Amino acid sequence: MVISQKLAVQPELFFITEINSVIIGTFMAGYDGHRGWLYTVAVSPHYQRQGIGSKLVRHAEKVLIAMGCLKINLQVRVSNVEVVEFYRKLGYLVEERISMGKLVA
């Protein structure tokens, strides 16, 4: 369901990578005209730690920048130390913010 929702809104910001016609990685981003957002990077466990996730993030960054994006944000759960380190290595910094949300459905 998440993929079909993304394909309905900014499908140009849904990226996949494949080997021999098999999808091994996906990435979703968004752009609201003010800020870019990185949402979900997923790489098949067999292909992790080979730079595929990093390449997907870098590709998304290039597309967002080409759209006029000046700042890219993302959210990671505090407990997800491994992913925090992944993004730190790509140049992302922890910013002091409070993240708030509201379920509407």
UniProtKB/TrEMBL annotation:
The N-acetyltransferase domain, residue ranges: 1-105
Protein's UniProt keywords contain Metal-binding: no
InterPro entries from the UniProt entry: Acyl_CoA_acyltransferase (IPR016181), GNAT_dom (IPR000182), MshD_Acetyltransferase (IPR050276)
GO terms, molecular function: protein-N-terminal-alanine acetyltransferase activity
GO CC entries: ribosome
Keyword list, A-Z: Ribonucleoprotein, Ribosomal protein, Transferase
Stored SUPFAM superfamilies: Acyl-CoA N-acyltransferases (Nat)
Cited NCBIfam families: PRK03624.1
Protein's UniProt name: Ribosomal protein S18 acetylase RimI and related acetyltransferases
Organism field: Nostoc flagelliforme CCNUN1
Lineage: Bacteria, Bacillati, Cyanobacteriota, Cyanophyceae, Nostocales
